[in-house]
Amino acid sequence: MANDRSQHMIGWETGVACDAVITVGTASDTCAVAIQLKDYAGNDLAVPGTVDLYFTSDADGQVMADVTDCAAGTDGDLLELLTDYCFMAVSEADGDIDVTLDGSGADTVYLNVRLPNGKRVISSIITFTS
Known about the structure:
Helix content is 0%, strand content 43%. The protein is mostly beta strands and 130 residues long. β1 and β2 form a beta hairpin.
């Protein structure tokens, strides 16, 4: 039974973000977005987690889009990797990340969260009104 994989269990790494919940606030020329990182069991992450954030113009996360500015809110921190397009975010110890988007000049975008396991979580549409 050389190929019997049932004997090998993949260990779940505790303290690693495996999912995320994105809550989009009301957009005008800015929009507040909250991200809650989850562990493999669906619980709020209980340690700081690191994820990548990027913006797209499509709901499938395939066409890059920019926002005029993206800033850390009260929870977590951001490092800009590609100006107005791509960020690395570090959560607080409870898995929370808050960001404020400035959409001046942008009509609609989606916030994409890329987790360490490669999974992507995509927000609902963010439509700026001014």
